[in-house]
Protein backbone atom coordinates (compact mmCIF):
# COMPACT_ATOMS: atom_id res chain seq x y z
CA UNK A 1 0.00 0.00 0.00
CA UNK A 2 1.35 3.41 -0.96
CA UNK A 3 0.95 6.17 1.65
CA UNK A 4 -0.60 9.28 0.09
CA UNK A 5 -0.23 12.67 1.77
CA UNK A 6 -3.25 14.64 0.55
CA UNK A 7 -2.97 18.42 0.32
CA UNK A 8 -5.41 21.11 -0.76
CA UNK A 9 -3.40 24.06 -1.98
CA UNK A 10 -0.44 24.24 0.41
CA UNK A 11 -2.47 23.00 3.38
CA UNK A 12 -1.87 19.48 4.64
CA UNK A 13 -5.14 17.54 4.98
CA UNK A 14 -4.70 13.85 5.81
CA UNK A 15 -2.91 10.61 4.95
CA UNK A 16 -4.59 7.96 2.82
CA UNK A 17 -3.49 4.43 1.97
CA UNK A 18 -4.20 2.88 -1.43
CA UNK A 19 -2.93 0.07 -3.60
CA UNK A 20 -1.18 1.04 -6.80
CA UNK A 21 -3.63 -1.28 -8.57
CA UNK A 22 -6.52 0.99 -7.53
CA UNK A 23 -8.18 2.82 -10.46
CA UNK A 24 -7.49 6.55 -10.43
CA UNK A 25 -11.23 7.34 -10.49
CA UNK A 26 -11.92 5.19 -7.41
CA UNK A 27 -9.02 6.68 -5.48
CA UNK A 28 -10.11 10.21 -6.40
CA UNK A 29 -13.67 9.55 -5.23
CA UNK A 30 -12.49 8.07 -1.91
CA UNK A 31 -10.10 10.94 -1.18
CA UNK A 32 -12.77 13.51 -2.09
CA UNK A 33 -15.30 11.77 0.17
CA UNK A 34 -12.91 11.93 3.12
CA UNK A 35 -12.03 15.56 2.38
CA UNK A 36 -15.71 16.61 2.24
CA UNK A 37 -16.46 14.50 5.32
CA UNK A 38 -13.86 16.40 7.34
CA UNK A 39 -15.45 19.67 6.27
CA UNK A 40 -18.90 18.40 7.31
CA UNK A 41 -17.58 17.41 10.75
CA UNK A 42 -16.01 20.85 11.15
CA UNK A 43 -19.30 22.57 10.25
CA UNK A 44 -21.31 20.40 12.65
CA UNK A 45 -18.86 20.99 15.50
CA UNK A 46 -19.01 24.74 14.90
CA UNK A 47 -22.81 24.71 15.08
CA UNK A 48 -22.76 22.48 18.18
CA UNK A 49 -20.58 25.05 19.94
CA UNK A 50 -23.42 27.54 19.43
CA UNK A 51 -26.05 24.93 20.31
CA UNK A 52 -24.59 24.35 23.78
CA UNK A 53 -24.58 28.11 24.44
CA UNK A 54 -27.84 29.32 22.89
CA UNK A 55 -30.08 26.33 22.15
CA UNK A 56 -31.71 25.27 18.89
CA UNK A 57 -31.89 27.29 15.69
CA UNK A 58 -34.92 29.56 15.23
CA UNK A 59 -37.19 29.07 12.21
CA UNK A 60 -35.95 30.91 9.08
CA UNK A 61 -38.78 33.45 9.27
CA UNK A 62 -37.74 34.53 12.79
CA UNK A 63 -33.95 34.61 12.45
CA UNK A 64 -32.60 38.15 12.65
CA UNK A 65 -35.81 39.76 13.91
CA UNK A 66 -36.05 41.67 17.17
CA UNK A 67 -38.39 40.50 19.94
CA UNK A 68 -40.74 43.37 19.13
CA UNK A 69 -40.89 42.39 15.46
CA UNK A 70 -41.62 38.77 16.37
CA UNK A 71 -44.51 39.85 18.59
CA UNK A 72 -45.82 42.32 16.02
CA UNK A 73 -45.77 39.71 13.24
CA UNK A 74 -47.22 37.08 15.63
CA UNK A 75 -44.50 34.57 14.80
CA UNK A 76 -44.03 31.51 17.02
CA UNK A 77 -41.12 29.09 17.36
CA UNK A 78 -43.29 25.97 17.71
CA UNK A 79 -40.25 23.67 17.50
CA UNK A 80 -38.66 25.46 20.44
CA UNK A 81 -41.50 24.21 22.65
CA UNK A 82 -40.99 20.54 21.77
CA UNK A 83 -37.21 20.28 21.17
CA UNK A 84 -36.18 20.74 24.80
CA UNK A 85 -32.75 19.55 26.05
CA UNK A 86 -32.59 16.74 28.60
CA UNK A 87 -32.57 17.98 32.18
CA UNK A 88 -34.11 21.33 31.30
CA UNK A 89 -32.51 24.59 30.27
CA UNK A 90 -31.57 28.10 31.31
CA UNK A 91 -32.21 31.12 29.12
CA UNK A 92 -29.09 32.57 27.49
CA UNK A 93 -30.05 35.01 24.76
CA UNK A 94 -28.27 34.70 21.43
CA UNK A 95 -26.76 38.15 20.66
CA UNK A 96 -27.07 37.62 16.89
CA UNK A 97 -30.64 36.29 17.03
CA UNK A 98 -30.08 32.91 15.36
CA UNK A 99 -30.99 30.60 18.25
CA UNK A 100 -33.81 30.52 20.80
CA UNK A 101 -31.59 30.97 23.88
CA UNK A 102 -32.63 27.72 25.62
CA UNK A 103 -29.19 26.64 26.81
CA UNK A 104 -28.80 23.00 27.96
CA UNK A 105 -27.78 22.42 31.58
CA UNK A 106 -24.13 22.04 32.54
CA UNK A 107 -24.07 18.23 32.32
CA UNK A 108 -25.48 18.26 28.79
CA UNK A 109 -23.05 21.00 27.81
CA UNK A 110 -20.21 18.76 28.97
CA UNK A 111 -21.56 15.92 26.83
CA UNK A 112 -21.52 18.18 23.77
CA UNK A 113 -18.07 19.57 24.58
CA UNK A 114 -16.45 16.14 25.01
CA UNK A 115 -18.11 14.84 21.85
CA UNK A 116 -16.91 17.81 19.81
CA UNK A 117 -13.33 17.25 21.01
CA UNK A 118 -13.52 13.52 20.29
CA UNK A 119 -14.93 14.00 16.79
CA UNK A 120 -12.30 16.61 15.91
CA UNK A 121 -9.52 14.33 17.16
CA UNK A 122 -10.77 11.53 14.89
CA UNK A 123 -10.08 13.60 11.76
CA UNK A 124 -7.44 16.03 13.02
CA UNK A 125 -4.62 17.21 10.75
CA UNK A 126 -2.25 16.19 13.54
CA UNK A 127 -2.76 12.60 12.41
CA UNK A 128 -0.40 13.42 9.53
CA UNK A 129 2.46 14.08 11.97
CA UNK A 130 1.66 10.79 13.73
CA UNK A 131 1.71 8.94 10.39
CA UNK A 132 -1.87 7.71 10.92
CA UNK A 133 -3.91 7.39 7.69
CA UNK A 134 -7.55 8.45 7.56
CA UNK A 135 -10.36 6.30 6.16
CA UNK A 136 -14.00 6.78 5.23
CA UNK A 137 -14.88 4.48 8.13
CA UNK A 138 -13.18 6.81 10.64
CA UNK A 139 -14.99 9.81 9.18
CA UNK A 140 -18.31 7.99 9.51
CA UNK A 141 -17.48 7.03 13.09
CA UNK A 142 -16.91 10.70 13.94
CA UNK A 143 -20.28 11.60 12.40
CA UNK A 144 -21.96 8.80 14.37
CA UNK A 145 -20.41 10.13 17.58
CA UNK A 146 -21.88 13.58 16.89
CA UNK A 147 -25.28 12.10 16.01
CA UNK A 148 -25.29 10.09 19.25
CA UNK A 149 -24.52 13.14 21.38
CA UNK A 150 -27.40 15.08 19.81
CA UNK A 151 -29.82 12.23 20.58
CA UNK A 152 -28.61 12.17 24.21
CA UNK A 153 -29.06 15.91 24.72
CA UNK A 154 -32.17 16.24 22.52
CA UNK A 155 -34.18 12.96 22.68
CA UNK A 156 -36.96 14.60 20.63
CA UNK A 157 -34.31 15.47 18.00
CA UNK A 158 -33.52 18.95 16.73
CA UNK A 159 -35.93 21.05 14.66
CA UNK A 160 -36.03 19.96 10.99
CA UNK A 161 -34.59 23.35 9.95
CA UNK A 162 -31.62 23.21 12.36
CA UNK A 163 -28.32 23.17 10.47
CA UNK A 164 -26.93 20.36 12.63
CA UNK A 165 -29.82 18.04 11.81
CA UNK A 166 -29.66 18.96 8.13
CA UNK A 167 -25.92 18.17 8.07
CA UNK A 168 -26.32 14.84 9.87
CA UNK A 169 -29.14 13.81 7.52
CA UNK A 170 -27.17 15.02 4.46
CA UNK A 171 -29.85 17.58 3.59
CA UNK A 172 -27.71 20.68 4.05
CA UNK A 173 -27.92 23.53 1.54
CA UNK A 174 -24.66 25.45 1.38
CA UNK A 175 -25.65 27.68 -1.52
CA UNK A 176 -24.26 31.18 -1.13
CA UNK A 177 -22.07 30.32 1.85
CA UNK A 178 -18.30 30.30 2.21
CA UNK A 179 -18.52 26.57 2.99
CA UNK A 180 -19.82 25.93 -0.53
CA UNK A 181 -16.49 27.19 -1.92
CA UNK A 182 -14.55 24.65 0.12
CA UNK A 183 -16.60 21.58 -0.76
CA UNK A 184 -15.47 19.68 -3.87
CA UNK A 185 -18.12 17.83 -5.85
CA UNK A 186 -16.96 14.26 -6.67
CA UNK A 187 -17.48 14.78 -10.40
CA UNK A 188 -15.14 17.78 -10.54
CA UNK A 189 -12.41 16.48 -8.18
CA UNK A 190 -8.92 16.14 -9.61
CA UNK A 191 -5.65 14.75 -8.24
CA UNK A 192 -2.15 15.96 -9.18
CA UNK A 193 1.27 14.42 -8.63
CA UNK A 194 4.46 16.40 -9.30
CA UNK A 195 2.59 18.80 -11.58
CA UNK A 196 1.04 15.93 -13.54
CA UNK A 197 -2.71 15.37 -13.67
CA UNK A 198 -4.02 11.93 -12.72
CA UNK A 199 -6.52 11.32 -15.53
CA UNK A 200 -9.76 9.69 -14.37
CA UNK A 201 -10.17 7.24 -17.22
CA UNK A 202 -11.43 3.64 -16.74
CA UNK A 203 -8.12 2.09 -17.78
CA UNK A 204 -5.92 4.35 -15.66
CA UNK A 205 -4.55 3.05 -12.36
CA UNK A 206 -2.47 4.69 -9.64
CA UNK A 207 0.63 2.76 -10.73
CA UNK A 208 0.54 4.56 -14.09
CA UNK A 209 1.52 7.77 -12.26
CA UNK A 210 3.15 6.73 -8.98
CA UNK A 211 5.34 3.85 -10.16
CA UNK A 212 5.26 0.25 -9.00
CA UNK A 213 6.80 0.45 -5.53
CA UNK A 214 4.00 -0.07 -2.99
CA UNK A 215 6.20 0.96 -0.04
CA UNK A 216 6.46 4.64 -0.91
CA UNK A 217 5.02 7.90 0.33
CA UNK A 218 3.85 10.55 -2.12
CA UNK A 219 2.17 13.95 -1.99
CA UNK A 220 -1.02 14.35 -4.03
CA UNK A 221 -2.83 17.65 -4.37
CA UNK A 222 -6.60 17.83 -4.61
CA UNK A 223 -8.18 20.48 -6.84
CA UNK A 224 -11.32 21.19 -8.83
CA UNK A 225 -11.39 20.46 -12.54
CA UNK A 226 -10.57 23.58 -14.54
CA UNK A 227 -8.61 25.31 -11.77
CA UNK A 228 -5.30 24.44 -13.43
CA UNK A 229 -2.27 22.70 -11.95
CA UNK A 230 -1.50 23.49 -8.31
CA UNK A 231 1.78 25.02 -7.21
CA UNK A 232 4.66 22.58 -6.92
CA UNK A 233 5.97 21.52 -3.55
CA UNK A 234 8.81 23.76 -2.25
CA UNK A 235 12.29 22.14 -2.41
CA UNK A 236 12.69 22.64 1.35
CA UNK A 237 10.20 21.97 4.12
CA UNK A 238 9.32 24.81 6.51
CA UNK A 239 11.47 23.26 9.24
CA UNK A 240 14.47 22.85 6.93
CA UNK A 241 14.06 26.42 5.72
CA UNK A 242 14.12 27.72 9.30
CA UNK A 243 17.27 25.70 10.09
CA UNK A 244 18.97 27.03 6.96
CA UNK A 245 18.08 30.62 7.85
CA UNK A 246 19.35 30.13 11.41
CA UNK A 247 22.67 28.76 10.12
CA UNK A 248 23.03 31.65 7.67
CA UNK A 249 22.34 34.16 10.44
CA UNK A 250 24.94 32.51 12.66
CA UNK A 251 27.61 32.72 9.94
CA UNK A 252 26.70 36.33 9.25
CA UNK A 253 27.19 37.22 12.92
CA UNK A 254 30.56 35.46 12.97
CA UNK A 255 31.70 37.44 9.92
CA UNK A 256 30.61 40.68 11.57
CA UNK A 257 32.66 39.81 14.64
CA UNK A 258 35.75 39.05 12.55
CA UNK A 259 35.42 42.36 10.72
CA UNK A 260 35.38 44.22 14.03
CA UNK A 261 38.56 42.51 15.29
CA UNK A 262 42.00 44.11 14.66
CA UNK A 263 44.38 42.38 12.27
CA UNK A 264 46.94 41.78 15.06
CA UNK A 265 44.47 40.54 17.67
CA UNK A 266 46.07 37.10 17.39
CA UNK A 267 49.21 38.48 19.12
CA UNK A 268 47.38 38.20 22.43
CA UNK A 269 46.94 34.45 21.94
CA UNK A 270 49.24 32.03 23.88
CA UNK A 271 50.35 30.30 20.70
CA UNK A 272 51.72 33.60 19.35
CA UNK A 273 54.09 34.09 22.33
CA UNK A 274 57.68 33.59 21.04
CA UNK A 275 59.03 32.63 24.49
CA UNK A 276 56.43 30.02 25.30
CA UNK A 277 58.47 27.14 23.81
CA UNK A 278 61.56 28.04 25.85
CA UNK A 279 59.60 28.31 29.10
CA UNK A 280 57.90 25.01 28.38
CA UNK A 281 61.27 23.23 27.90
CA UNK A 282 62.59 24.63 31.15
CA UNK A 283 59.35 23.81 32.96
CA UNK A 284 58.86 27.35 34.12
CA UNK A 285 55.39 27.91 32.67
CA UNK A 286 52.65 29.25 34.91
CA UNK A 287 55.09 30.33 37.64
CA UNK A 288 53.91 33.19 39.76
CA UNK A 289 56.60 35.34 41.39
CA UNK A 290 56.04 36.68 44.84
CA UNK A 291 57.96 39.70 46.02
CA UNK A 292 60.31 39.13 48.97
CA UNK A 293 59.70 40.99 52.17
TrEMBL record:
Q: What are the GO BP annotations of this UniProt entry?
A: regulation of cilium movement
UniProt-listed Pfam families: CFAP298
Q: Which InterPro entries match?
A: CFAP298
Family according to the record = Belongs to the CFAP298 family.
Q: What is this protein called?
A: Cilia- and flagella-associated protein 298
Amino acid sequence: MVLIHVKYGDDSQFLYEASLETPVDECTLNITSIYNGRLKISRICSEMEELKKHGTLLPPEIIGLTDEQVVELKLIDKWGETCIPSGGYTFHKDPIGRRNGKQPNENMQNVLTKTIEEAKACVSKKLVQSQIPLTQKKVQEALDILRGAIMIVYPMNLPPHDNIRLEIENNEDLTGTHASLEVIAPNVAQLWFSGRELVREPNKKMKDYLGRNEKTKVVLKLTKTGSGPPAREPPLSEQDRKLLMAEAFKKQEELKKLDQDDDDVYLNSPWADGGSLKRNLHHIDNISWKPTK
